Amino acid sequence: MLLRSTCGRELRKLALDVPKIMDNWVTKIGYPVVQVAEVDGGIRVRQHRFLDTGPAAPEDDETIWAIPLSILATDSDGKASIDRGVLLHEREQVLQLDTSKPFKLNAGAVGMYRVLYSPGRLAKIAQAVAMSNSIFSLEDKLGLLLDTLELSKAGYSPTSSALTLYNIFRDEHDRQIWQSVADGISDMTSTWFEHSDIVKDLDAFSRELFGPIVNRLGTDYPDDEDIDVCQLRTAAIKQAANAGYSNVVDHLTALFSKAVETGDDGCIHPDLISIAYQTAVRYGGRKEWEAVKAIIAKAQTPQIGNAAMFALGTTHDKELQEETWSYIMTKARDQDLYIYFRGLQSNPTARRFLADKFKADYDDLCKRTVDNFRMQYLVQFALSALASTKDYEETEAFFKDKDTSTFKMALDQALDNIKARAAWVERSSEDVRQWLESRG
């Protein structure tokens, strides 16, 4: 977070109007992105308002923030230091810096702004970050990953930059790093859900990254294991399963079969209950789907019940998807509707099916949620993961003559999500496709 006292001292040194400039952080909507360009003898830094929808128009880009740049750099001996005295308090500044050595703005990722590097510089920073004796902290690594993904999604940089980072970080061992990588790839897979060639290659890339982690850590959970190792294993197993890594799929489906046969879920580690159910239903058939449906009726704990409700929607069988919807409309409790919706939304083969069914049965669903605010969750899960301009236009038209007062915020967010995802797909499909294909 930006510390008022520290920033205020730096502003006073520059004889600037502290209250006026700090007011921009407190009262103005949004935050900046700092663009870094290399010039002779240093770097040129330039600030703009960051928008999820892409570079701001001039009329939306009038705010100037006072930004502490916190430049992490190395000297001729390779010793690292952080210059916390550099403050970007105008639109653009040129700073002296030896760019032949590793450097990074926003050291420790403490500033509330994003940093945009050129793809070439980003790759160099990533290579330095990934070294075993790296001068960069865990916070630097996480900040770099998050900035790169968000800047890619918003159209400031190519999405291939994020994929390049994930590839460079393949030898990392930290659980938080891998969770960030998993989240990023999952975000892409979800957004390009109707582009089978891209999803296929993203899954292959995911298996390549997470398969070795599962092989190294195994699938058992020792009692005395460090919590970070436990969480890393779980994240790797989930990502590998979703990407179709055969060893993990076989393991999880075998655990599910054993649990069903014995009537005891004790053979499945609690962290794997949900992904085991999902994997069994996704790669199985009616037998597994019926087994999960039976578990819903007799679940002894909320964890088991919620996992089964979610998994019911992960089937890729069209007939079973229809039966899932029939079950939702006739048997599901009103308070559980959103869980079933989440399961269908997570399923790329059922996502459009869910949106169509939601619209077809909208009146009945409204009656089931009239006395509460659950409709906002149904709107969110039924619609927000769609990803085309046509989806945006059809969704907007569908609600045009309806009373949306009880879920207006959720609907607005869903429409914003659809628009952003559609723009990402439109802008970056070829970039992502080329990067994936270039790997051979």
What features would you describe in this structure?
Belongs to the peptidase M1 family. Residues 103-420 form the ERAP1-like C-terminal domain. InterPro entries: ERAP1-like_C_dom, Peptidase_M1_aminopeptidases. GO terms for molecular function: metalloaminopeptidase activity; peptide binding; zinc ion binding. This is ERAP1-like C-terminal domain-containing protein. By secondary structure, the protein is an alpha+beta fold. It has 2 domains: 4-172, Immunoglobulin-like (Sandwich), CATH 2.60.40; 185-438, Zincin-like fold, CATH 1.25.50. Helices cover 58% and strands 9% of the residues. It is built from 19 helices and 9 strands. It has helices at residues 4-13, 18-27, 119-130, 138-153, 159-168, 175-191, 196-217, 227-242, 246-262, 273-283, 286-298, 302-312, 318-330, 337-346, 351-360, 362-368, 375-383, 389-398, 408-438; strands at 32-39, 42-49, 67-68, 71-74, 80-83, 87-88, 92-96, 103-104, 114-116. The strands form 3 sheets. A 4-stranded mixed β-sheet has the order 7-2-1-9. A 3-stranded antiparallel β-sheet has the order 5-4-8, with no helix packed on it. A hairpin with a 2-residue loop joins strand 1 (32-39) and strand 2 (42-49). Helix 6 packs antiparallel against helix 7, helix 14 runs parallel beside helix 17 (375-383) and helix 17 (375-383) runs parallel beside helix 19. The radius of gyration is 24 Å and the shape is globular. The two termini are 42 Å apart.
Please describe the topology of this protein:
Blueprint: H1 4-13, H2 18-27, E1 32-39, E2 42-49, E3 67-68, E4 71-74, E5 80-83, E6 87-88, E7 92-96, E8 103-104, E9 114-116, H3 119-130, H4 138-153, H5 159-168, H6 175-191, H7 196-217, H8 227-242, H9 246-262, H10 273-283, H11 286-298, H12 302-312, H13 318-330, H14 337-346, H15 351-360, H16 362-368, H17 375-383, H18 389-398, H19 408-438
Parallel strand pairs: 1-9
Antiparallel strand pairs: 1-2, 2-7, 3-6, 4-5, 4-8
Helix pairs in contact: 3-5, 4-5, 4-6, 6-7, 6-8, 7-8, 7-19, 9-10, 10-12, 11-12, 12-14, 14-15, 14-17, 15-17, 17-19, 18-19
